[in-house]
Amino acid sequence: WRRSIISSIRNTNLSLIEWPVLGVLPGLLWNVWTDNIHGAADRTLKDYGGTFLFKGPWFANMDFIGTSDPLNAHHIFSKSYAKYRKGEDFKAIFEFLGEGIFNADGEAWKFQRQLLHSILNNEELQNHMTTTLKLKMECTLFPVLDARVGAEVDMQEVAKMFMFDNFCLWVLGFGYLCVDRHLDTFSCGKAYDDIEEAVVYRHIVPKGVWKIQRIFGIGSEKKFSTSIKVLDKFLYDVVKTKKQELHKEDKRLQHELLTQWMVADEREESSDKFLRSTDKFLRDIALTLISAGRDTLSSTLSLLLWLVATHPDVEEKIFGEIERVMIVMTRSARGTSRFLICKDDLHELVYLHAAIYETLRLYPPLPFEHRCATEADVLPSGHKVHKGMRMLFSMYSMGRMEETWGKDCMDFKPERWISDEGNIIHVPSQKFMTFLTGPRTCLGKAMSFMLLKFMVSSILWNYKFEMVEGHVVKPTPSMVLSMKDGLKMRVSKRKV
Ligand code: HEM
């Protein structure tokens, strides 16, 4: 039956009206989803020349247009950007992010974007991030890996916990290194995973169904309510402390993003200033920033480790490049530390940069994006859009299009990103949409490359990873691309 659903998606503009029992729908879709929804969507999009119309039951408001066409992307996210908003459905699904930038539209979004842009691109913040990252790797990540040498380790789990801990430190100023009452980032990380699971479910069942489940506290909605309480307790506690500390001059200079936000916001004048200083709003900002970075980076890190472990030629080139850069750079503390490339030399790691791009092309951490039409429109592909219709854009498919990437589009080949002169080739964002395109493009792209290059070069220099025999990597249904049964690897120390 699973195959028959997929083939009906392919052969018709899928109409589910005839399906008699609405209760069956969520279960069936869930199973298609768990059987690699991104791959299924990719095949469907290819069969339909990059765009298809999905018609749901008339009473469920589930119609949407799925697309991976670069011209449609440019139209929706850039040219006619004002006609396509995140919309109320998006806000309902992602309600746990509150009024943070992901859920904001219009003036509220503009204000947050401006402020966050200046905060995230601050050089001092970036220095602080690499310094603390180094400390964290030395005190938490490397001891964990050292203790598991020769044993089986789920590197996806390690990457997730490591990045959650780092983002708690960067956003809130608390993490494993600051042992105090705010320490319980482990249960918060778990709570966050449960929330994400509920959010995926909300994408594939009609709104009415999950709302009813919520009222009666059933299934993933039950987990959602419990987890949100765990997370909120932690966040509100920190927000209160940070607000009190804001009156102390030395605390105002701290680098954590929440404090930086409050200090920057103090200078701004606007009518909704009162709203922005409430505990709730500050909690939303903090959680949004943790969400923006934690999963995207842990997903990229674990997928890159997997691709490197299964492509020995790429591993050799990355390793060779680190060695070369290390020998040439006098600024590096060669031989005295396990961290050989300092922040200012990261730009020399061109091949690693290309390997990260290539990972993000094949496995975009956010595999799809959605928008809602505010008025009737026609897409460049000719598809008619009615007011209120949802657009689902597959970045996963876009990264695998033969027209853009050539016949070898399914191969992991970092070289495709490097020019004959040895520089990174620029691919326009409407063709490489991993960080989106248009006014809402990701604010953390440069920061992500900096952090990933710093982490990956240090990790690969010190450790070698091999796949555990028989472990199969397959995607799981989640908002952020991750591996269904984790990433089981065997770790050994390099003798360098
Ligand atoms: C590999 C890493 C990352 C990828 C692939 C990525 C991708 C994306 C994508 C696709 C969006 C658009 C989401 C939407 O509109 O619904 C986005 C937005 C955003 N990202 Fe990232 N991101 C990454 C890392 C980061 C990091 C580390 C930060 C910093 C904390 C960050 C901050 C943001 C912010 C603030 C937005 C909202 C922009 C807006 O709505 O105007 N991202 N990112």
TrEMBL record:
Keywords: Heme, Iron, Metal-binding, Monooxygenase, Oxidoreductase, Signal
Cofactor(s) needed: heme
InterPro entries with a match to the protein in the record: Cyt_P450 (IPR001128), Cyt_P450_E_grp-I (IPR002401), Cyt_P450_sf (IPR036396)
Gene3D superfamilies: Cytochrome P450
Sequence positions that bind heme: 442
GO MF entries: heme binding; iron ion binding; monooxygenase activity; oxidoreductase activity, acting on paired donors, with incorporation or reduction of molecular oxygen
SUPFAM superfamilies: Cytochrome P450
Top-level lineage group: Eukaryota
Family listed: Belongs to the cytochrome P450 family.
PANTHER family, alphabetized: CYTOCHROME P450
Name recorded for this polypeptide: Cytochrome P450
Species assigned in the record: Linum tenue
Lineage of source species: Eukaryota, Viridiplantae, Streptophyta, Embryophyta, Tracheophyta
